[in-house]
Specification:
The chain is mainly α. The chain is built from 14 helices and 2 strands. A hairpin with a 4-residue loop joins β1 (179-182) and β2 (187-190). Pfam families: 7tm_1.
Length: 365
């Protein structure tokens, strides 16, 4: 008996060593309907958003807006590809009920899906943090940044985020952590375990995601405060740049959605491995659905929270920073007193060079 048991352990691929198909699990949240609806809605939303972004990029008149649109395009493309890769595998499993052990005897397919889950999970969080850094520098350091902003720099940053997330997803193939089949047998993900190597990789995944959200929250808060300083200053009319407020509003929406969707899963993984608890499949699938919602809702933040759309919803209002702040005159007065000296005493430029131009903005005299 001992020899046969050890023989079975030696012949069982590592991705099936903990959970091995077939499974008997009929929870509604793991049904084919959820997967098909989520995937179809997410793919169509991201495709529509990408078309809108292309048109907006062609009309963009400032380098900062072009840079921001490149980041948004990278986010939309990442979300689209993530849903396409992982969704097609999950929906195919529910439709055909293929046998993972026969289809993937050496765990190559399972490892690919696990890498995809990690890569396409971290990329939106890292891109959100990158956009927060870009907006923070653009709003708080407009002069030192003016000579560096360009389309090539934005594209390079997006590419670096993809490479960084890809390197993290490859760590289990190098021995740090492992990818395993997950209940109900339709997907593969990191092994949420308290074993040393698995624990380290789980913490790397969770902490990178949580740190990205923390950076986004901190820098976006500072950027919003800076914009309010400009709005409440005596030279608000001369300094007003409505597209800055529009971009910050969209970035805040992306950050809030990412926090709501991803924090439960990231905290759940870290808490499970640190407390050495048994993985509760019901909650794992629930928080995974929350994370999937991020890829569906991200494109709608840009689609809906644009001044062109807001003007159609409420055509009688002027959707600008000064008009929004003017709704709260008491708050405006108090904030002006608290923030009378603006950042560095430097004015914010009223306009920027178009995307095709790379000439720096001249410093204020």
């Amino acid at each position: 008996m001992d020899r046969s048991a050890s023989s079975d352990n030696e012949t069982t691929p590592i991705c099936f060593s903990i959970n091995s198909p077939p499974f008997k699990y009929n929870h509604t949240i793991a049904s084919a309907y959820f997967s098909a609806i989520f995937s179809g809605l997410g793919l169509s939303s991201n495709l529509f958003a990408f078309i809108v972004l292309i048109k907006a990029y062609q009309r963009a008149q400032s380098r900062s807006r072009c840079s921001f649109l490149i980041f948004l395009s990278g986010l939309v493309v990442t979300d689209f590809m993530g849903l396409l890769v992982t969704g097609s595998i999950v929906v195919s499993f529910h439709a055909t009920r293929f046998n993972w052990r026969e289809l993937d005897p050496h765990c190559h397919f399972c490892n690919f899906m696990g890498m995809s889950m990690v890569f396409y999970g971290l990329c939106p969080l890292l891109l959100g943090a990158s956009m927060a850094v870009e907006r923070f520098m653009g709003i708080n350091q407009p002069f030192s940044r003016s000579t560096n902003v360009s389309k090539s720099r934005a594209l390079l940053t997006v590419a670096m985020v993809w490479v960084f997330a890809g390197c993290i997803s490859l760590l289990p193939l190098g021995g740090l952590g492992s990818y395993h089949m997950q209940v109900p047998g339709s997907w593969c993900f990191i092994n949420i375990s308290s074993k040393p190597l698995d624990l380290i990789f789980c913490l790397v995944f969770s902490l990178v995601g949580l740190l990205s959200l923390a950076v986004s929250f901190l820098l976006n808060t500072v950027s919003v405060v800076t914009l309010l300083r400009v709005c409440c200053g005596q030279e608000a009319m001369q300094r007003r740049r409505n597209h800055e407020a529009e971009m910050m509003g969209q970035l805040i929406g992306i950050m809030i959605i990412a926090s709501i969707c991803w924090c439960p899963l990231l905290v759940f993984i870290a808490q499970t491995v640190l407390t050495r608890s048994h993985v509760q499949v019901k909650y794992l699938l629930l928080w995974l659905r929350f994370a999937t919602c991020n890829q569906i809702l991200d494109p709608w933040v840009y689609i809906l929270f644009r001044r062109a759309v807001l003007r159609r919803i409420a055509p009688s209002r002027e959707w600008s920073r000064s008009s929004i702040v003017s709704l709260y005159p008491g708050f405006t007065t108090s904030l002006r007193r608290l923030t009378r000296p603006s950042l560095g005493g430097e004015p914010v430029h009223g306009g920027e060079a178009p995307c095709s131009e790379d000439t720096p903005i001249p410093p204020a005299s």
